[in-house]
Amino acid sequence: MMPRPTPHLPSQGGGLGTAAPFLPRLGDLARDAAHGGRIGVVVALPDEERRTYHLRPPGGGDDWSAPADGTTLRPVPARATHVTPIRRDAVYDSRAQQGSLPVQVHYEDGGVSEAMLVLTPDQVEVWAYQVGRLIDQRNWKHGADQ
Fold this sequence. Notes:
By secondary structure, the protein is α+β, with helices and mostly antiparallel strands.
């Protein structure tokens, strides 16, 4: 049986390094690490005439440039809009003294990702009380509607 290659390990011939640079397209939002994390809209791409990206603040303002190799630019992720529980069991880890609940994070661009909501024992008690209140309110509302 042949071992599976693991190119991410230096001993297997893979080099350590950072991820590929972010090379934004016209109109993309980008965070520029060389300008204190400033966010801008890409208004011009590098070409034969200009050797840099040109960015402008989203609300307007003075343009600035960033290197054509994209080394200082990072994508601006979509903001999370809400989180919903996933129908899997919550787990309490007594050694770590924390509970975890699988959740799905929803983003303003329509994307979703899975994550874990981690709670301390005090937070678990507060959430139990708050969820209990929600159930009581729902039951009271259902009783009032009938």
